Amino acid sequence: MPENRDLGAENSPKHRKIKGKEGEDKAEAFLKSSGFRIIGRNIRYAAGEIDIIALDRDVLVFVEVKAWSAYPIENLEYGISKKKQRRIIETSKYFLENHREYSDMPIRFDVVFIQADAVTHIASAFMENI
């Protein structure tokens, strides 16, 4: 007998939050295995949230994690709109104002795309001049 399940539950806020955390966990593990040092996760300020902040040698990296199962990586631009990019950039400015020890470092905005068992890291996915 087929399993009776609520298909709407997969789009519930609770399910998306769990899936997002799992994606961030995978992204963090991937970044660590690539030599990044994680500084923080889910950093929130009034402007928005940054999923992961890490050091890649001497570069401070603000990472947006996208954990999608229904869309291919080619659709990534729809998940990281110009508006979303601006919010991440503004949040990074708040972070730097409050953590001056990083203020003289070069910065970068990366995206880690999680899909099934694949992890794709896009370094310098966007820049402040948007």
What this model shows, in words?
The protein is an alpha+beta fold. The chain has one domain: Trna Endonuclease, Chain: A, domain 1 (3-Layer(aba) Sandwich). It is 32% helix and 35% strand. It has a five-stranded mixed β-sheet. A hairpin with a 2-residue loop joins strand 2 (48-56) and strand 3. The longest helix is centred in the first third of the chain and has 21 residues, at 13-33. The radius of gyration is 16 Å and the shape is globular. The chain starts with 12 loop residues before the first helix and ends with a strand.
Structural class: alpha+beta
Largest sheet: 5 strands, mixed
Rg over C-alpha atoms, rounded to the nearest angstrom: 16 Å
Task: Note the gap between the termini.
Answer: 53 Å
Q: What's the helix count?
A: 3
How many independent structural domains?
1
Order of helix and strand elements from N to C terminus: HEEEHHEE
Q: Which range best describes the helical content: under 10%, 10-25%, 25-40%, 40-55%, 55-70% or over 70%?
A: 25-40%
What is the C-level CATH assignment? Alpha Beta
Described by the principal axes of the CA atoms, the overall outline is globular
Task: Please sum up the structure shown.
The chain has 130 residues and is an alpha+beta fold. It has a single domain, classed as Trna Endonuclease, Chain: A, domain 1 (3-Layer(aba) Sandwich). It has helices spanning 13-33, 76-79, 82-98, and strands spanning 37-45, 48-56, 59-67, 107-115, 118-126.
